[in-house]
Structure formats: structure tokens, C-alpha cells
Amino acid sequence: MEQTVAQVIRLDVPSSLRWVHTLHAVITEILSQLALDEELSDQINLAVIEAGTNAIKHGNQENPDKRAYFEFILQPDRFTVVIQDQGPGFDRERVPDPMQPENLFKSSGRGLFLIESCMDDVTYEKSGTLIRMVKKLT
Amino acid sequence: MEISIKYQKENVILHISGSILGDDRLQLSDKIEELVDSGGKNVVLNLQDVDLMDSVGLGMLVALRASLMRREVRLLLSNVDRSVRSLLLITKLNNVFDLYDTEDEALADLDSVDRDRSMI
Prior knowledge:
heterodimer; A: alpha+beta; Heat Shock Protein 90; globular; B: alpha/beta; Transcription Regulator spoIIAA; five-stranded mixed β-sheet; 31% strand
């Protein structure tokens, strides 16, 4: 039977980068159920890891008392991921462009650029503590 | 992430498997620095079995490349898989790193540089 109602999977993890591997395992398993082509799966996987890392590292500052919340929404025509942290938020406009020549050789600062490159629609809500990203599947 | 190490002359070859995410960068960069401290003249990273690398891992490679260059040690990447190659392309770092289709090609390049130097 064709899936017509959104299916939602939720996960929340403590704010330590060691849980990024658990996040990778979960998103890989969800994507395998969707039987997407490899490139599409790679893009979603990377965007989720980048946004998850941002939530844990930059949002929650790896504070063990704070958690990062993930919601994966599966619909026939799109895959939506919502990630929220418990940090102070940030202003996207103030994040430097990593593709500018002066930033190209820096060892950090590529996360948001990669998320926005990999997903079709990315929005920052609640003062930057929540990121909503959508990948079209059709 | 798992690392296996082999040596060819004074070159060190690291075969990485699994994913390079989050704090894996520390394990990998520490291991490479340790191998260079022990006398490795060049480092080849075989990334054939790396299924995913994030921007933290990529940033580690950028920093490591710069740090090894200061020590006159080359960092070569071989067998770069689809997802890592895509990451390098998106970030325009594909032209920054020395990329080789196979480990043998990377080692052959190191050999040719050695030959050129011995002729000077």
C-alpha cells in the first residue's frame, strides 16, 4: 500500500560528539528503508550529521545536561528533518562564507554551507536553535 | 573508524575504514602526527572504505595538510570514494589536495619526486 500519511521518527541524544555515530547509524537505517539512490542518501546523511554536530557542539556547547532533539518526517514526496538544541541560538547572517578565498583553508566553518548545499530547503527558526531542512524525493 | 598502517620505504600508508565523524578527527590526526614523528616522510591516506566524512573530518585534513607541509611532509589521498569526493568538490578542496585513483599511483608519484631530487 502506498504511504500517504507522514511517518515521524524522533530521537534525542545527550550533547556529546560521541553520539554522532549513533545518529549516523539511525539516519542510515531510516534512509535504507526509503531505498533512495546513493547520492541522495549521502546528501541527507551528511546534512543530518552536520546539523546534529552543530546542535551538540555549537548549540549545546557539549553540555551533558543539554540534549539535541531530532525529528525525521517521512512523506512520499519529501524527507524533512527538524533539529533543535538548547543553546542560545545564532544569527545565520553573521556566519562567514567558507567559500570566500580568505576562508577556503580554514579548518572549520563549512557545516552550514554543506547543509544548504545538500538539502533543497533550509530554514532557521527560534533564534537559530531550530533548523528545519527538506529534501525533495521526486 | 578503523585505521590499518603499512609502510613502503619511508612512506606511511594508512587505510581508513568506516566513517570519519566528530571526535574521530583527534584519533586520526594524532596517529598521523605520531607516525611522522617516528620518521614517516610522506603520508598516503587510502580512503576507499570511508563511507562518510563530515566537515569536522574535512577540516582536520585541511589543518593536517598545512601542518605536514611545514614539516616538508606530503599528504596524499588515494582511492577517494564517492561521498568524500563529493564533499571535496562541493567545498572546492578537490584542487587543494593531491588526489590519486589508487594507492600505487600515489606511491609512484612519490617515487618520481624522489628520482627527480636525486638527479639534481
